[in-house]
Amino acid sequence: MANPLHGSGPLRSRNASSSDEIQLRIDPVHGDLDEEIDGLHSRVRLLKGVAQEINAEAKFQNDFLSQLQMTLIKAQAGVKHNMRRMNKSIIQKGSNHVLHVVLFALFCFFVVYLLSKFSRR
User: Where are the annotated segments for Disordered (predicted)?
Assistant: First the structure.
């Protein structure tokens, strides 16, 4: 098995006199490392821009959701307030209105039933 510190590519390592040091020799045939580094640098810069755009979009959507949540809380409070007012009104004036609504619904159901029964014939 080959030693991973000794390569055969453009970068080759040699054992130095001390065990803490590694010397690299750049092969002149593969001397386009600066171009590779510049290419990687431009790609990293592009990825950084994309990440910043994603961050900005996430913040925008988070703010939008917070505003939507506040709007829903306000609407829920309004509905709850109106339900209380309606319940107080029904209790104070009696439940005749509810009885009228129930009778009207039964009447409508009966009319629809009769219409559907006679329309089949």
Answer: 1-20
| Interatomic CA distance for residues 120 and 113, integer angstroms | 11
Residues paired with residue 12 on neighbouring β-strands, in sequence order: 25
The answer to whether the beta carbons of residues 70 and 50 sit under 8 Å apart is no
- Note the pLDDT tens digit of each residue in 33-53: 778 888 889 999 999 999 999
What distance in Å separates the CA atoms of residue 15 and residue 21, rounded to the nearest whole number?
Answer: 7
Round to whole Å and give the CA distance between 24 and 8.
12
Q: What is the pTM of this model?
A: 0.44
Whether 21 contacts 13, CB under 8 Å: no
Contact partners, residue 13, CB within 8 Å, separation at least 6: 5, 6, 7, 22, 23, 24, 25
- What span, in angstroms and rounded, lies between the C-alpha atoms of 2 and 6? 8
User: Which helix (DSSP H) or strand (DSSP E) does residue 83 occupy?
Assistant: helix 33-93
